[in-house]
Amino acid sequence: MLAENILKHLKKEGYKFTNRRKLMVEILVANQDKFISAKTLCKEVQQMYPNVSWDTIYRTLALLLENGVIEKREFGEKGSKFRLVCHHHHHHHVVCLSCGKTKILDKCPMTFIDTVFDDFQVVEHRFELYGYCNACI
Questions:
Q1: Residues 95, 98, 100, 105: what is their CA dihedral angle, to the nearest 10 degrees?
Q2: Which keywords label this protein (predicted)?
């Protein structure tokens, strides 16, 4: 997904974007294969805009979450991290707890689990494996 496509979509929905917010979208696009924290995102934005406020960071993240552009996951003591929503086919992720890098897991465990429930209808599920990639071991 390209930053310009995201910005066009949001502009069409009536949202304005400052250069700081545009940069945030560009950073998320550049890191679309991993989850990143708001702190990391803020540090990267501050390289170009040293006075960017935390309010700007969090308001923009909330706007992107609300519009289905990004997704949020909790990483225990490391807090929340964000990444662009995958618009691929149905899949799941393997996620590195250290660097946030993700890989797609094409096999869905629901094909095995679904046969176990004869008195329960699953309407939504999420499956992710967390560990450490080879670079972080």
A1: -20
A2: Cytoplasm, DNA-binding, Repressor, Transcription, Transcription regulation, Zinc
> Which domains does the chain possess?
3-84 (1.10.10.10), 92-131 (no CATH)
Mean pLDDT over the full length of the chain: 89
CA 82 to chain centre: 4
* Residues 116, 58: Cα–Cα separation, whole Å: 41
What is the tens place of the pLDDT at every residue in 49-73? 999 999 999 999 999 999 999 999 8
| Residue 108 CA to its chain's centroid (Å) | 20
Check: CB of residue 57 under 8 Å from CB of residue 18: no
d(CA 15, CA 90): 29
User: Which residue reads 């949202």 in tokens?
Assistant: 15
Task: Give SS3 for 22.
Answer: helix
Q: State the CB neighbour count (10 A cutoff) for residue 44.
A: 18
Whether pTM exceeds 0.70: yes
Cα–Cα distance for residue pair 60/86, rounded to 1 Å: 19
pLDDT in tens, 107-127: 888 877 767 777 887 788 888
